[in-house]
Amino acid sequence: MFTNYFQMLSETLTSIFNKLPAKSVHAHCDGPCGVYDPASARVAAEAVLSMTKKLIALAPAGNDQASISAYNNTFSRFVAIKEEESQKTKKELLILWTDYFKPEHLATYPDLHDPFWKAAKLCSACKVNIDQTKAEELLAAVQKIHSMFWSSKGRSDSWVTAS
Question: What is the SS3 assignment for 22?
Fold first, then answer.
């Protein structure tokens, strides 16, 4: 019984090896086309701006312990969300920068690295600060990257925000 099994395995492997080497294929990006999209960075950047606005507007309802505790709880949660979404924005942008955009894109976009580098720095600034101007700059930087991305695909998808 084992002899038949090993003989079948040997024949199968020989059949596979006889078909090698496989024909080389080339792809533009690391994943299949269509997996990259700056929309996820936009959604995260919008959340950063939204949380920043909410933090700026937040105030305790009163001076009693219950009001202060509720304020601290809400403030902490908003900060945690803002930092998480800032990090998510950075991650999504870095994936586009390092996995989607290739050296051949530099011919069309000679300043390609600058918007990504500035956007990543804005993500960090939004994590450590409650600064509406920085959050708005981050969203604008994501919009610029959105335009470059879709232009590189020969498309001009509209910039749409939730707010």
Answer: coil
pLDDT (average), residues 34-49: 93
| Secondary structure of residue 23 in the 3-state scheme | coil
Residue 114 or residue 3, greater confidence: 114
For the cut 70, the answer to whether the pLDDT of residue 31 exceeds it is no
Prior bond of 21 cis (ω within 30°): yes
CA gap 23, 25 in Å, rounded: 6
Please identify which residue in the block is written with the tokens 């920068």: 97
Contact between residue 118 and residue 29 where contact means Cβ atoms under 8 Å apart: no
Total residues found in the chain within this entry: 163
Confidence of residue 73 (pLDDT cuts 50, 70, 90): very high
Q: Residue 19 pLDDT more than 90? A: no
Cα 139 to chain centroid, rounded: 13
Q: Where do the H-state alpha helices sit in the chain? A: 2-18, 39-57, 65-95, 105-108, 113-128, 132-152
Taking the C-alpha atoms of residue 158 and residue 150, their distance in angstroms, rounded to an integer, is 9
Residue 157 CB burial class (10 angstroms; 0-12, 13-18, ≥19): middle
Say if residues 93 and 136 touch (Cβ distance below 8 Å): no
Question: Is residue 52's pLDDT more than 90?
Answer: yes
